[in-house]
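Q: Structure tokens for this one, please.
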Amino acid sequence: MTTSPPPLPIPVAAALEAANAGNTEDFLAAFADDGAVDDWGRVFRGREEIRGWSDAEFIGKQVTLEVTATQTDGDTTTVTAQVGGNGFNGPSTFTFHHPSPRLALMRITA
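A: Here is the predicted structure, written as tokens:
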């Protein structure tokens, strides 16, 4: 018998679904007003900076995220995904910090 992984926390699932759908507004709505993206050490804080980064390097590059593993510990969720699209392609780890109903941080690493 196989068991399904537990469901992702709502803001994490919302961000991943929005990215895969190419929906920038829903992606941004998953973040707190002062939320941030840390893309390999480059930090983009607030929805407007996140929008600029996403338009140039994420949703604007028709990103696809095929989730291969997840783990949640308290208010931190780690997602391993195969990234596709017209930008970076390959495996990445996304660590989401979600202490409230919205994301405080999405960190992208190898």
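A few notes: The longest helix spans residues 10-21. Strands lie at 31-39, 42-45, 64-73, 76-84, 90-97, 103-109.
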